[in-house]
Each structure stands twice: as C-alpha cells, then as structure tokens.
Amino acid sequence: MNDAPVPLRARRDAVLAHPWFVFATTNALALTMVLPFLGSVGLWDPWEPHYVEVAREMLARRDLIHPFWEESWFFSKPVLTMWLAMPGLWLTGAGAPGGAFAASLEWWVRLPVALLSALSVGLVSHHTARLTTTRTGLFTGVVLATAPVWCFVSRQVMVDLPYVATATIAAWSLMRVVFDERAPRWWLDVAAVGAAVSVLAKGALGVAVPGLALTCALAASSTGWREAWRRLAALRSARAAGLFAIVAVPWYAAMFRFTQLDHDGRTFFERFIMYDHLGRLVSGVHSNTPQHVFTYFVEQLGYGLFPGVMLVPLAFVEAGRSGVSRAVAAYALGLFAVFSLSATKFHHYDLPLLPPLAVLIALSLTRWWDREPLAGAGWLGAVLVVLVSRDLSKEPRKWVELFTYNHERPYPAFLDDRPVLPGLDVHAMPWLLAAGSVLALAVACWSPAWRRAACVGVLSGFVVTGAWLSWSHWVQYGRHWTQRALFDRYYAERQGREPIAAFFMDWKGETFYSRNTVVQVGPQNHQRVLPAFLAPTGRKWLLVEHARLPALLQLIGAGHAVKQFDPQANDKFVLLAVD
Fold first, then answer.
1. Torsional class of 147: left (φ above 0), alpha (ψ -120 to 50), beta (otherwise)
2. If phi over 0 gives left and psi between -120 and 50 gives alpha, with beta otherwise, what is residue 420?
3. Could you tell me whether strands 540-545 and 573-578 are parallel, antiparallel, or unpaired per DSSP bridges?
C-alpha cells in the first residue's frame, strides 16, 4: 500500500477540477454581496411594500391562490413573488392584525429573493465552466454577482429578480444540453422547472427568455441545428414538458376560472393578458420612459455594469470565436432588441442581459489572463468607462434609479457630501473606480508579465464596487425610500387606537406598514374624508409628502394643534400628530 502524502498541488487541482467547485465558489460570492445588511432598511416604495402587502393579505385571508390588494383583487402580476414573501411574513407574525412589525421582517421577506439570486449566479457560472473553462466560470460569477443592478435588484422583493433568475437557470441549462453531449439528461428537467417557475413570476417572458436562448444555441451548434434539435428531443423532452405543465398550469387554470373583478372592473384575463402583457408591449402602460428608444438600455447597462462596462467591447470580440460564444452573443443581442422595442421601459428591464454579458466579459478576461493582445477594443472600453463615470459622478442618483419608480421624487442630496473614504464622497467614487480599471488596462498593455495581476485588479474593482453599493450606498439612501421609520415612530408614540391617514399618497408603504388600516385622503375625497377624520376628539396621525405639507396644514386649519415628528428623518415624507 502506498501511504505517500498527496502533494498540495495535486489536492488543489483535484478541488479545482470538481464539477461543483465553481458553483460553490460563485454562489458564496453572490451571498456575500447580498446578505449583509439585507434587512437594515424598510421596504422601498412603491414596489416592495405593494407585493409584500398582497402577500400579507393573502396570508391573513388564508387564500394562497387569489392575490388581494386593499379592498379588491390584484391581477397585474403572477403569484410567485407573493409566495416567496409569505414564509417571512408568517415567521414574523405579520399576518396577525394590528401593531408594528417585527424588526427582522424585511430580512426574512427579502431572503428568498437573495437566495434565488445566488443560486442563479452559481448555476450560470457552473454551466459556463463546463462549456468553457473553470477560470471562465469563476470570472462569470464575479462579474454577475458584483454588477450594480444585479446587486440592487437581488435585495428587492420585486417580480424581476425571481423571473430573471429562474429564466436564466432555464436558459443556461438548455445551453448546457445543446452544447455538451455528456450533460446529464436531468438538466432538461431543470430547464423545464425553471421556465415554469419563471412563468409564475412574470408570465410569458418566463418562456420567451429561455426559448430565445435555446434558439440561439441550436443555431450556433457545431453539429447543425437539426442534429442538435434531434438530440434535444431525445432527452426525455416529454417528461420535461410534463414537469413544466405540473408547475406552471394549476395556478393559471385557477385564475382563468376565477370570475371576480379587480378595482378597475377587469377579469384576470383582461387585466393580466390584455393590459399588462399586450399593453406593456404595444402601448407603454405604466412606463415612466415611453419615448426612449435604442440608446435607453445602452445607458442603463453602462450604469448597471459599471465598471465592467469597460470590458463590453472586448466581450463582443469573443462573439465569433466558438459556438458557445456565438450563441451567448446572439442571445444578448436578441434580448436587447426585444426590450428596446417594447413600448414599456423601466431601467431594470435590462436585467436578463446581465448573465450573457457576464459570460462574454468572462471569456474576454480569460484571454486577457492568457496574455493575448487586447487590441483596440480594450481602449474603446476605457473611453466607455470614463464617459459612464462622468455621468455617475454628476448624478449619483442614476444608481438608485436603476430599480426605483418615479425619478422625479427628491433625492437626498444632503447625503452626497458624506465621505465614502477619507476625502472622497459619492461623486468622486465613480472616478476612483474608473481610474483603477483604466490603470489595470494600461498595465496589461505596457507589460505582459503583469497582465494577470492587472486582471486580478480589475476583478477586485468589481468586488469593491458591488460591496460598496450593496453594504453602504443602498443602506445609506434606503431610509429615504421607505416609510418604516415613520411607522415605527407612530406605533411607539400612539396611545390606544389612535388612527393614521395618508394625505394624497399612493406609495404603497402606507398601506403595508399600517396593515391596511390607513385612511386614504385623496384628491377626489379629501373635502369629505379629511374633516370626518379630524372631527372626533383625541389625537390623530397623518402622513404627507414634504411638498404637500403646506396644503395639508391649510386644510387642517388653525383650530388644531399640529406637531411634526423627525421632519429630517425622511426627505420624502413627514409624520404629523394632530390634536
């Protein structure tokens, strides 16, 4: 028997060669980016409290099928996001009536989204490693897990990350099956389940996104698309179709049979299919940027990938080098075309483009690591990152706008001068990060011997950017996009059952944090509702936007004593007590 110790290098190589090494490493990195400070701020208006309140209502009503909002049915989104929030609501007792929520509520309701994000990063990196190299897979995980828009949306209880994460898992599982003849057959089942879950998160895009990936993979397959399709069909595709139906169909079947109407008098089919699917695609319903065209997502990808945008020109040089890179590039361009042509555009609608761009960037980084010439595309990337850093340094709010609604709301400018590092504020950070990236590029071109060190420097810059934006920037600005602190103060100060009303507000947080007990004083009813609210003896509470405070005080009149609580705590809202 040979008892000689295994050399350290051999043990290291064995670990690196393990099929799931890349998954474990990149999954851990993604969790490191998103879990710290996850519950440190309240739910951001308006999307987070909207979806979580629908989940809370479903839990309180003991109806896990039919989404409900305030006083009517909610048909504009599928149910998955609400289901993901329910365990956290149940664990923290949020389904019960009355009182402040537990301090840990936000952490628990965001946790499933964060875990789903990390899972998708790990699986995309794993598949990329199996189709290319271990190093490319690791690079993919670093680029994707640290991209600003990915970090931000992974911290939000919104429909977008659950749909993108599961659709991306389906897309890369299909890529793996097409390009890797040795891939286990059950990856086709994983793709089917991923697409089905994505359909429960967003609707038709859950099929369209992985369907586009499959089309691009078949077209780019070296064996020819006919042979690739025959091989795919042979991999128990009937079983995969059955799994898709088992997961996706029951909830939709129940909803299409549901005859109740929402607050606009629409059935589920009329609201979800005709208005929120076809209407968003054709007429731009709910869009805050309906006039933007081709350049819109170019700009948003620049901010959402910063400073990785420097490597995008190099990434597309990779598009013709292999069947995998051709498929991934075609997939990215197809997604870009689809979302650019859509009439409805939000900044984070480019989220599905992040995984294919991360793979292309990782391929270019691998060639950089292997000391291949960077060519002119590298310097074009340097120009891009400088232009994007100029925009971000002038308007840091562009980072927050990547995942928020109504970009005309006030921005907490008084926080801009707070130092991020000694002598550096938020306006200087983009220049610092861009300078580091360009310096690494210059070092790589100047001295090939230092190219790998420069590559590590660029990847370190990605990690620093993602960590700063996730652990500091998001936390620092978050309290101005949530009503959590105002309601905590209300519950701490109120005596008995003193009521609370919201004046001319539809930011959703007032409904969730009051457990749907807030009195809505709106433009159509304020002349009747406000006097009736103030008439009974005793103290009442009001929430109002700072900009509408003078109008509210005028309506209240001199006959009531009004006290403001912590007017500087939130630059959007203020809490009033009225005697």
1. beta
2. alpha
3. antiparallel
Output b/e per residue, 545-569; b: 16+ Cβ within 10 A. beeebeebbeebeeeeeeeebeeee
| Burial environment of residue 430 by CB neighbours within 10 A (0 to 12, 13 to 18, 19 or more) | buried
Give residue 508's region: left, alpha or beta (phi > 0; psi -120 to 50): left
Q: 341: which residues sit within 8 A by CB, 6+ positions away?
A: none
CA distance 36 to 32: 7
CB 481 within 8 A of CB 488: no
HSE-CB at 336 with a 13 A cutoff on CA atoms is: 18
**Cα–Cα distance measured from residue 451 to residue 434, given in angstroms and rounded to the nearest whole number:** 18
Q: What is the pLDDT of residues 132-179, one digit of tens each?
A: 999 999 999 999 999 999 999 999 999 999 999 999 999 999 999 989
Secondary structure, 3-state, 431-494: HHHHHHHHHHHHHHHHCHHHHHHHHHHHHHHHHHHHHHHHHHHHHHHHCCCCCHHHHHHHHHHC
Tokens of 559: 């006959």
Distances (CA, A) of 411 to 401, 405, 481: 10, 12, 10
Instruction: Please report which residue ranges of 221-263 form alpha helices under DSSP H.
Output: 225-234, 237-257
Partners of 262 in the β-ladder = 73
C-alpha distances (whole Å) from 204 to each of 209, 247, 444 are 9, 14, 44
Q: What is the pLDDT of residues 423-442, one digit of tens each?
A: 788 888 999 999 998 898 88
Long-range pairs for 337-344 at CB < 8 Å and ≥24 separation? 338/208, 338/212, 339/297, 340/293, 340/294, 340/296, 340/297, 342/280, 342/281, 343/280, 343/281, 343/282, 343/283, 343/284, 343/287, 343/290, 344/279, 344/280, 344/281, 344/284, 344/285, 344/286, 344/287, 344/290
- Collect all residues with Cβ–Cβ distance below 8 Å to 128 and sequence separation of at least 6: 22, 136, 137, 140, 172, 359, 362
Q: What residue segments make up the domains of the chain, in order of their start? A: 15-39+108-478, 484-578
